[in-house]
Write a structure and sequence with these properties.
414 residues; alpha/beta; Rossmann fold; eight-stranded mixed β-sheet; 14 strands; 16% strand; globular
């Protein structure tokens, strides 16, 4: 049986996010077609070396950040978000793994370069997916990712040169971009024609049976509440602070309505989480805003929390794609999203969702007010979003296109 090796920077079940959803669902589709997909990654935030999760094998390897003087807090911060790690254990396993059809990297830098080098030495195809982490990231965000390693001498640069990390995207047999904005930028930057736009997907059936009553009971919300929510990483990129600010303005403008807000997801930046708590207290919203820990995607709890909402809000400062939008549509929800990155193409304003300028609290408040006061419009947006999702963004359709790209990559090695 042909093995397809997916290599992300990390894969921690308790830190589930969009990248984990993408990789897992692609693996399930490939498995259904008779291939043997596996996830090979570092032990960042998940020390268990081997596990099988929902029938998908996961193997994790020892790693380090090649900088002198990093504290445990620095390492944890890099584990959480964007650390440029080194895993020679992973490299040597990839180099010797039997029956490999193709190497699919979901990571760049040193780790991605190690995957590329193993693929080239084995004369196997190498495919790289950009999950919004190179051409479509604001400079301030990119700087914040590596903040923990600033001021520490880097001894790992020779490994970047050995693994040709800087040439990874030029050398790849296929470069996949989940967001249309990044796809356009990658096409303009790279000197080859092997760049493809491959959006994310969703499994509609996984969100079909959410229990609205159970979700509201869990959250302590009344049946007549008009509820907004954002289930995503608690992170400055997602800009939940703006959502709390706009929700507070909505509550002040409509004191007669039973309004509620849910924020949930893994906390990547504890200081930012504390800012959110402080803002909730400042606006005296503690009875109206609920913070919920991260949940596993497509789990019964995830379905019930989404079903408890009346609208999903994604106020990101930048967003390569926005897989949570698909999950919201699959749950029968309308969507409000900032007009950035992949969201600009994904959401069609006033047809299947509402856009607002990123960072504009007043515009977001106005969008929230339309949802809260126009139930027919709210239902029309949700219906249109569900139709778009089923027509264009199922994992089955996405994987069919991915298989075509795999075959093109294989043809370069025939």
């Amino acid at each position: 049986m042909s093995r397809i090796l997916h290599i992300p920077r990390r894969f921690a079940i308790d830190e589930w996010g969009g990248t984990e959803s993408v990789i897992f669902n692609l693996c399930k589709q490939q498995q259904s077609l008779g291939f043997q997909p596996e996830i090979h990654t570092s032990r960042a935030l998940a020390p268990l070396a081997k596990e099988v999760w929902r029938d998908i094998p996961i193997r994790r390897y020892r790693y380090c950040y090649p900088f002198f003087g990093l504290s445990p807090q620095d390492i944890h911060a890099l584990d959480k978000k964007g650390g440029n790690l080194l895993s020679l254990d992973l490299f040597f396993h990839l180099l010797t793994a039997p029956n490999v059809r193709l190497y699919h990297a979901h990571v760049l830098k040193r780790m991605g370069g190690a995957v590329l080098t193993a693929a080239r030495l084995r004369k196997k195809p190498f495919v790289a997916t950009l999950h919004g982490n190179i051409f479509d990231v604001p400079a301030a965000e990119a700087a914040s990712v590596v903040e923990a390693q600033q001021g520490h001498f880097e001894w790992g640069k020779p490994f970047g040169a050995i693994f040709r990390s800087r040439h990874l995207l030029e050398d790849a047999d296929a470069v996949l971009c989940v967001g249309h904005s990044e796809y356009e930028k990658a096409k303009a930057k790279l000197h080859h024609d092997r760049v493809y736009h491959l959006p994310n997907g969703v499994t509609p059936e996984a969100f079909a049976n959410g229990d609205r009553a159970a979700g509201r009971q869990l959250l302590g919300w009344p049946e007549d509440a008009i509820a907004f929510g954002c289930l995503s990483r608690i992170d400055p990129q997602k800009n939940q602070l703006l959502l709390v600010e706009s929700f507070a303005a909505l509550v002040a403008a409509h004191p007669e309505k039973p309004l509620r807000l849910l924020l949930g997801g893994p906390i990547t930046t504890p200081a930012y989480h504390q800012e959110i708590l402080t803002l909730i207290e400042t606006h005296q919203l503690s009875g109206l805003v609920t913070l919920h820990p991260a949940v596993i995607a497509e789990s019964p709890l995830h379905r019930d929390l989404l079903a408890a909402l009346d609208c999903f809000v994604l106020p990101s400062r930048h967003e390569p794609f926005g897989i949570v939008v698909l999950e919201a549509w699959a749950s029968g929800l309308p969507v409000i999203a900032s007009h950035v990155g992949g969201l600009q193409k994904l959401v069609d304003h006033e047809r299947d969702g509402l856009h607002f300028p990123s960072g504009d609290a007043a515009a977001l408040t106005a969008a929230l007010a339309r949802i809260a006061t126009e139930p027919d419009f709210r239902r029309a947006l949700a219906t249109a979003g569900y139709g778009k999702m089923t027509a264009h963004y199922t994992w089955q359709a996405v994987n069919a296109r991915l298989e075509e790209i795999y075959q093109l990559a294989e043809a370069r090695h025939a």
